[in-house]
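Reopening this ticket.

The earlier resolution said the output was attached, but the attachment link was broken on my side. Pasting everything inline this time so it's all in one place.
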Amino acid sequence: MHTILKISLVVAALAVLPASGDSGPQPYLAAGNEPDAAKFLQAFPDPASGVGQYEVAVYEKTRAYETSSDPAESARWKLATLDADLTTPAVLADFGCALGTALTPANAPHLATVFDRAKNDAGIVIANAKKDFHRDRPFIGNTQDTCVDRSTVGNPPDYSPSYPSGHTTLSWMFALILAEIAPDRSTAILARGRSYGESRVVCGMHWPSDVEAGRTTGAAVFAALQSDPGFRADVDAARTEVAAARANPAPPDAARCAMENAAAAKQPW
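Inline output:
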């Protein structure tokens, strides 16, 4: 394997794994207990197939959203740009509208810990699956705009592989965790999780089938985490603090919520 590709696969894991000797958040699952996505995901569509050609058409269509005169399309591009940020404070904020109160590491520290640690588990699964499938990103071979710099997924010519979508894996896993914590808000939370993954297509970073595979992968990691006592304890603690935050809610930004709700209402292509 080329050195650049090895670096790209580290990027594919979204820089979530702690460095050797790092005292930062550790994965919940013991090494080797992570799901193997290469064993349960279907192969991605053949580019020459009808589905493959449809995915190219989706990529072409969504390239126009950045400069579209349609306010809904331009807003969808803006949200895709915001959704590219996978830092823990950003992800907590991304689900504040769906939950009905702003979430931060300060008012939901255990929830932040759950995401930080589970992100490390998912990062291992994502990196291994990307290596096995090794699908090209949709922007390879063209110069069309993406909503974030292409260097966020590696360096040319060896960008991190596309399948499955790492952002989608993490956002869907987190949506499932948050829906477990606040089941009465599960519909809105899962709708937001769905649109978060779709942002990666709008952004030009992924094909639609990458996003579908990311949801499957996120659900598999979520299922595996259920058996870990540390995960269960942290989720229970997060449930208590989220309930407290909801009892005295800090209203999320109304304009951001309107944009997210519009995105969650329909598929953007």
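Reporter confirms the inline version is readable. The two ends are 36 Å apart (CA to CA). Strands lie at 154-155, 158-159.
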